[in-house]
Amino acid sequence: MRHTKTLERLKESGYRLTPQRVMVLAALAARPGHIGVDEIYRQVYEGYPYIDVATVYRTLQLLKNLHMVTELDVGGTTRYELIEADRHHHMVCRGCGNAFDFSPTYLVEFRQRLTQEFGFQPDLEHFAIGGLCSRCAESL
Amino acid sequence: MRHTKTLERLKESGYRLTPQRVMVLAALAARPGHIGVDEIYRQVYEGYPYIDVATVYRTLQLLKNLHMVTELDVGGTTRYELIEADRHHHMVCRGCGNAFDFSPTYLVEFRQRLTQEFGFQPDLEHFAIGGLCSRCAESL
DNA sequence: GTTAATGCAAACACTTTGCAGCCGC
DNA sequence: GCGGCTGCAAAGTGTTTGCATTAAC
Description:
Chain A is an alpha+beta fold.
């Protein structure tokens, strides 16, 4: 399961492993890519009709604060996505030459808008962007 | 005024040039970058306290449909921005080699997140992205 | 046994809609 | 004058919060 690690981290952080939280995480893990609150709610509801939307919201808020999911707003709706540990892109500083990582989630909205509005599918597998890091920006 | 052209286009498209619309556009033009509904409302309210939020919403909806402003959701709030006519970036198709334009607004959220969360200032002045255009994607 | 987490309901913020009167053209 | 646009009020959405009860530890 893709979310086993997240469950462990939750427990280790001192939070309770309730069935509701497990189910919300399962719903998030079930779908690759991002998913809306209503979809999560519906999926959890299938297995446990007593679930409340408020619980889903609270769980997502918790996971967001713990950096286990990312929240992104696209086209007026809020969606959530499990953070995968490994994949990442690079920011390369033109000052010091150092490379820094950032998550693919940062490009999700960008990609989606190009695809939706132009039908264009950008190559974003090995993406790197140039620029100026905070340290180099300060020393100018 | 940065929004004169937009006003003309509105009129030419057969829509009425009401004081409310002019003021909403003025508010949008006053601030470079994007601005929220409440800020627009407040600013218009200063000069005309009878303005209603509904009118602001309807005007923004109209301008959005006419592609005179872009709507973008960042961090749970919706913001609006006047579309500048000239500046743009490129999408380059790896199939046919054609280049297509897209507005810098598509990168606003991306840039903002890198800056806010990492202090990294990406170079996005002459940005181009590779990928596959809709036509080429179909013929695969 | 403690205390955090849940379900429920109510409150909340933001956005949209119906309608009568008004005003840009 | 006609019809689109506005202000007003009311209804929708999506999200948050207070509180008593429940269940994870």
